[in-house]
Write a sequence for this structure.
């Protein structure tokens, strides 16, 4: 009969522990009220503290999970935005290429001449033949499909097969972009320089100049890169390249 | 005495027959396709004595109709019942706006107890035979032969390999006389017929999974009072317990080569995914997180494992790359996405998706993460893909009764397989049968 | 079973309810295991005042109640706790604050009766997938196990098992049924 009573005394502290926890939660005090010194044993504090820790861990785990959810969702949104952005860029670029082609054509024919139609004799369209345009579009489709290796081969073939095409600077420019993607920086430098030096009138010159700045930055030649970017800003004010160059320069200042 | 016993036995076997017929799942087509190809499946001529146990043309017609891609002509509309080319008046069938005509004959063969079955598919417009074959089988194999014919006709007309000769595994639950819940693991033909019970127990059974050779089922049974993963040969009934770890033993999934199982164990405290090698019996842990990790599924190329994890709070689908060890989250829409299955070509996943508090089956293309909801009932779960990738079977509920539903992966075709007698759940569609 | 004295338990429960300043769980246990044929009896109801555990408790109050409790200690520890089920929110294995007093009674009992063993049986409601619910039931049981362990219950006394959504306590497809099915049963 004695044993159960003793057990009762032993167990009492554990019975009251949870209320201590609640009081502590509410008043932010450790549990002095309950801790009758004569009876307070190490283990009351111990198990109360353990329970607190358990609940804290539970809470932390939940918070971690909630944060992970946010991070994962945001990661997904970023991937999507990148994709959308690339798609939009490629779309705009292809429209601009088409436009510049048309403009080049118009210039050749004289602005007053009739627009392109099927009655024109082939000799008036020596530069952009249907096949050259098709070949260019095919190469460009490979860029869109992110088949970079195949796109490089396609542009190289285009440059070889249509040396007089008005799209040649564009082809060089895209080849440079592709070399950048593939980390063939020296190759990229070569073709971007070709665009600038050989086709000074091409609308790709501003972009190529900006890219050349990025090439220098990749080499770690920051001074040279900054000089190049400043040159882009003065040579091609109001261009996209100029805006991108400014962004680059701003980033360097920080 | 003798006679009475005999009568009793007869009555008993008769009863068994009736029960068998009722216990089979029955099919109700709920939504078809408007552009289905019209095909007349004419009753096959029987050129033998006494009756035949099965109506082959009926089985073929039902199979084709269930696909949703073919619309068989009702028998009552047929003007004649030809069984070979000389009896066909193509004009009649083109008047009935039929594109194709399937005719056939069954007769006893030279060897006793074996039947010869001839079937021919005709193009009504061109009036030419496009398919035809002579096959044989015992009277007990007539259903299998009929499904075989369905497979051939379906593949010819749609270009999709037929999956009518495949099987379903599922679990039924019903209260017995003492109102105890009786769980049964069953296997039937893809049309719900020829149902066989391969395990009966008064403890829960879950997660049947077909081996790639369609010979074995892995499943979870609580028959020992604790969950264990069992492997059972569907044809011989031979079985063994594979795992009996402390805590969970669940969600078995076969690797495509059939040499490993991915399973869920909690032997180290928390539910995690492990790989069990069925030759060496080595157990290897694949995931580690304090959240729930469960419901593994092997990709068709064996290089990835899909699983459900609550590491971001609620359940979402993740994909583990077994080569790089990297884990990628695949689902982002909604707060509950679980138990995913790959399409046979690995380009899509199907899973349980909750939107607005309702559980549907959804599909998601892996290339663009686009999600589409396939089912409309509120408590849908356990999607399982047909081996030709065209249909999904899943578990759903009406009132308190669970039944199986089927939907095409494009969401256009639906049918259900209700059972008269029991709660049906956890369907698993077998791979193509190899033998 | 004889030593489950209603009056004592009732008193004990009421004391606890006052002490904690929170509503005890309404402990109406329906014929949960009817299918399995166990002889679960209908337990006395400890009425809840409906409030959650956020009302303040002063030190003095608590001190007095501790003395009361002390007097009753002998009776209390002899009794196996009457409430054997705690409940959870949807898709979570976090122990609710209002479950702690019930768990503490079991802690008290298990610490005194170190030869007593319990099976912690985790369950989920029918919504969602079966294997996920199996895992969820296990995590709920594990959460109770951890709670007991940090309070000094020997892990040899504890066993966890999950039945997922397979053994519903209450049949039905509504919130009332679901909330009764998301549970851990503490079985001696």
């Amino acid at each position: 009969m004695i044993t159960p009573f003793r057990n009762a005394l032993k167990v009492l502290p554990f019975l009251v522990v949870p209320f201590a926890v609640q009081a502590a939660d509410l008043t932010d005090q450790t549990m002095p009220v309950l801790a009758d010194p004569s009876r307070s044993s190490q283990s009351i504090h111990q198990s109360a503290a353990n329970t607190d820790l358990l609940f804290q861990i539970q809470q932390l785990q939940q918070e971690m999970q909630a944060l992970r959810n946010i991070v994962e969702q945001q990661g997904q949104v970023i991937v999507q935005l990148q994709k959308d952005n690339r798609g939009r860029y490629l779309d705009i670029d292809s429209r601009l290429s088409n436009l510049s082609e048309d403009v080049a054509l118009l210039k050749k024919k004289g602005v007053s001449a009739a627009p392109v139609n099927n009655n024109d004799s082939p000799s008036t369209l020596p530069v952009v033949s249907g096949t050259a345009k098709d070949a260019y579009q095919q190469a460009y489709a490979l860029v869109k499909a992110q088949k970079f290796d195949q796109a490089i081969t396609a542009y190289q073939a285009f440059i070889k097969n249509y040396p007089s095409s008005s799209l040649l600077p564009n082809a060089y420019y895209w080849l440079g972009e592709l070399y950048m993607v593939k980390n063939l920086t020296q190759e990229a430098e070569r073709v971007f320089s070709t665009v600038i030096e050989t086709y000074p009138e091409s609308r790709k010159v501003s972009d190529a100049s900006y890219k050349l700045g990025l090439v220098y930055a990749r080499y770690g030649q920051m001074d040279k890169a900054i000089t190049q970017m400043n040159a882009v800003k003065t040579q091609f004010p109001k261009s996209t390249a100029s805006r991108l160059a400014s962004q680059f320069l701003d980033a360097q200042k920080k | 005495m003798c006679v009475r016993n005999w009568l009793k036995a007869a009555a008993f076997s008769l009863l068994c027959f009736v029960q068998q017929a009722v216990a089979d799942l029955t099919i109700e087509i709920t939504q078809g396709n408007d552009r289905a190809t019209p095909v007349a499946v004419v009753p096959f001529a029987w050129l033998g004595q006494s009756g035949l146990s099965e109506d082959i043309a009926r089985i073929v017609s039902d199979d084709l109709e269930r696909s949703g891609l073919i619309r068989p002509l009702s028998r009552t509309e047929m003007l004649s019942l030809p069984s070979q080319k000389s009896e066909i008046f193509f004009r009649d069938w083109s008047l009935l706006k039929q594109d194709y005509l399937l005719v056939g004959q069954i007769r006893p063969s030279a060897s006793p107890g074996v039947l010869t079955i001839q079937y021919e598919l005709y193009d009504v417009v061109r009036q030419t035979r496009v398919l035809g074959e002579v096959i044989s089988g015992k009277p007990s194999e007539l259903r299998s032969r009929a499904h075989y014919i369905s497979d051939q006709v379906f593949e010819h007309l749609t270009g999709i390999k037929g999956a009518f000769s495949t099987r379903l595994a599922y679990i039924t639950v019903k209260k017995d006389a003492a109102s105890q819940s009786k769980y049964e693991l069953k296997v039937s033909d893809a049309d719900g017929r020829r149902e066989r019970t391969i395990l009966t127990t008064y403890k829960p059974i879950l997660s049947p999974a077909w081996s790639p050779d369609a010979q074995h089922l892995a499943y979870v049974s609580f028959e020992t009072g604790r969950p264990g993963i069992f492997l059972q040969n569907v044809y011989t009934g031979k079985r063994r317990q594979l795992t009996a770890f402390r805590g969970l033993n669940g969600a078995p999934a076969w690797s495509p080569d059939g040499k490993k199982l991915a399973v869920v164990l909690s032997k180290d405290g928390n539910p995690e995914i492990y790989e069990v090698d069925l030759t060496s019996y080595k157990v290897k842990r694949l995931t580690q997180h304090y959240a729930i990790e469960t419901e593994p599924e092997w990709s068709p190329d064996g290089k990835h494992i899909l699983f459900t994890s609550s590491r971001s709070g609620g359940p979402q689908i993740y994909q583990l790359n077994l080569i790089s060890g990297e884990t990628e989250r695949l689902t982002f829409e909604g707060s509950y996405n679980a138990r995913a299955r790959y399409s046979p070509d690995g380009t899509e996943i199907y899973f349980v998706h909750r939107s607005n508090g309702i559980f549907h089956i959804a599909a998601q293309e892996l290339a663009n993460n686009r999600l589409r909801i396939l089912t409309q009932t509120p408590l849908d779960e356990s999607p399982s893909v047909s081996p030709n990738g065209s249909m999904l079977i899943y578990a759903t509920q009406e009132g308190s009764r669970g039944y199986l539903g089927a939907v095409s992966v494009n969401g256009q075709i639906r049918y259900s397989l209700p059972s008269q007698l029991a709660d049906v759940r956890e369907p698993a569609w077998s791979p193509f049968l190899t033998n | 079973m004889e030593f489950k004295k209603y009056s004592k338990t009732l008193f004990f429960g009421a004391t606890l309810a006052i002490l904690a300043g929170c509503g005890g769980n309404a402990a109406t246990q329906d014929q949960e295991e009817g299918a399995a044929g166990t002889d679960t009896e209908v337990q006395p109801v400890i009425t809840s005042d409906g409030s959650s555990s956020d009302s303040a408790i002063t030190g003095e109050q608590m001190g007095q109640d501790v003395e009361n409790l002390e007097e009753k200690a002998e009776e209390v520890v002899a009794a196996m706790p009457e409430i054997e089920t705690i409940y959870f929110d949807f898709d979570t294995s976090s122990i609710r604050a209002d479950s702690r007093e019930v768990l503490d009674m079991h802690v008290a009992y298990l610490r005194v009766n170190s030869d007593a063993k319990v099976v912690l049986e985790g369950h989920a409601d029918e919504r969602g997938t079966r294997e996920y619910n199996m895992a969820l039931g296990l995590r709920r049981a594990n959460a109770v196990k951890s709670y007991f362990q940090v309070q000094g219950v020997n892990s040899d006394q504890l066993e966890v098992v999950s039945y997922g959504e397979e053994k519903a306590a209450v049949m039905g497809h509504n919130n009332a049924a679901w909330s009764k099915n998301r549970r851990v049963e503490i079985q001696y």
About this structure: Chain A touches chain C at residues 4-5, 7-12, 14-19, 21-23, 26-27, 32-34, 36, 43, 46-47, 50-51, 53-55, 58, 62 (CB under 8 Å).
